[in-house]
Please model this.
Amino acid sequence: MISESLKSTLLHYKDLSASFCFLTGAGVSAESGIRTFRGEDGYWTIGSDVYTPQEIATHKLFSQFPEKCWEWYLLRFFKCKGAEPNAGHFSLEQIERTLNDNFSLVTQNIDGLHLKAGSSDKRTFQIHGNINKMRCSEECCLDLFNLPNEVSLIEETKSFSSIAHLLKCPECGAMSRPHVLWFDEYYTEEHYRSESALNSAFRSDVLVVAGTTLLTSLPAHIVEYFANTHKTIIGIDIERNTLAKYADRSHRGEFILAKSSEALSEISKILSDYRIPET
Ligand SMILES: [Zn+2]
Model:
């Protein structure tokens, strides 16, 4: 699946003790049963009886109808909570242990599966948030709180009022909000570590992009930076997408037409005896 030329490129960077940034999207979680948001039957295509997902996942709707917004997120929360990491997630955890500080992971996924697989908080940038967390909607603090397990009661009662008290900010008592970036919001460092994510990507020698069509701006910005600075881009997806062109044109880059789990596990094996440079 990985061509001889790509293998020699990876060995070349391994000999140089180069740094790698991995960028992951919905395709990586799809193998864990989390539907890709924009695919047929994806979350972004199923809204409520009145609103489309693009309308629900906004600060505007939350400020008007927080309960509708929360209900929709809670349904997704239960789906993500039941999902387990797949071989792609575990390969990335293995690669991080091998590369240490020469590794960073920028993910568009909000399901938290990279952390569940053991990837570190420090080197994992969840730029769109994490659905397992909530934070104060009034911004009284920057703390993130775990969604209480008792919110599952809504599955039986179908009534938001039965669980509304569980979604209060533990600090000030205001309504909390899902810790996710909405369509009408911008990336911020304090909530999403977006500047840190960009900086660690820009410092890297090689970019490996798995399972995303780059529809969101920060990941697209990272890929364009690598293209413009003639660095290596390796793309992985089950179909050729816009990323394939970037990968093919980049310095020593290539596109791998494969499942993320299979390609990442191959990459993990090739990098396995990587030596961390002495400082
Ligand atoms: Zn608060």
Summary: The chain has one domain: 4-270. The mean pLDDT is 91.
